[in-house]
Amino acid sequence: MITTQMLHDLEQDSAVKKNYAAAGSWGQNKIVFLPVVVLIFSAFALYFFYDLSKTDSSYSTYTLVCGALILLSIIAIALIQKSAKQQVINNIASVPVCVAKKIYGNDTNGIYYCIYTTGSKRHDPTFIDAIADRIFNIDHEPEAALYKKEIDRLFSVKFADTNSVAVPLPTGFTAGEQVYQKQFSTAALTAVTKENDGKFAVLAFNGLSVPVLKEAF
């Protein structure tokens, strides 16, 4: 059962959090996206020029250039991520453990919109349940009408993007606490979410890297 004490203890356990340093390092250094883009375009170009080189050998040079760009991109990504991972490890004590909760999703592929907070209520299952209830019952809460359009937009049916960046809910809707919406793949969390009324635990490295904390299962 996920409890406030369990979440607090996990947050204090740097050894456990270090196990997620590699996942948490993704997106820490935005420069990494440059070689990623080069890698993707080079891979497509390599396929294109390789096909042409079968009938015209003059395209072989372009094939070699694309191959070299792919290799250099992979090396650059590895070096950037190695540095980012070390930076994450150096600051691992400050990474918050948060309770998260399923809101709306697709049971077929297991992709769900979920919410969590990195603020002072991050270990409070009762708080995250209360925010979830406000979302579920927004049509019946006159005082929340001001935020209905934004909440409907945040939880509209367009799933299957677990690499999406976390998006903040209006703080007026969440009693001043910074609560985020993010998509998660919850297929492997069925047992823990069923036992905890849709709740599970995450490590919030940044808005992009929010891995599920398996030690809370």
Notes on the protein architecture:
- The chain is an alpha+beta fold.
- The protein is 44% helix and 14% strand.
- The protein has eight helices and five strands.
- Strands 3-4-2-1-5 form a five-stranded antiparallel beta sheet.
- Helix 4 (33-53) runs antiparallel to helix 5 (60-90).
Q: State the share of residues found in helices, binned by percent.
A: 40-55%
Q: Element order, helices and strands?
A: HHHHHEEHHEEHE
Instruction: List low-pLDDT spans.
Output: none
Determine the oligomeric state from the structure: single chain
The helix/strand class is alpha+beta
- Report, as a whole number of angstroms, the end-to-end distance: 8 Å
Rounded mean pLDDT score: 90
Query: Count of helices?
Result: 8
Q: Which shape, going by the Cα principal axes?
A: elongated
Q: Rg from C-alpha positions?
A: 21 Å
**Main β-sheet, spatial strand arrangement:** 3-4-2-1-5
| Count of DSSP strands | 5
Instruction: Specify the biggest β-sheet.
Output: 5 strands, antiparallel
Sheet-strand content, in percent, reads 5-15%
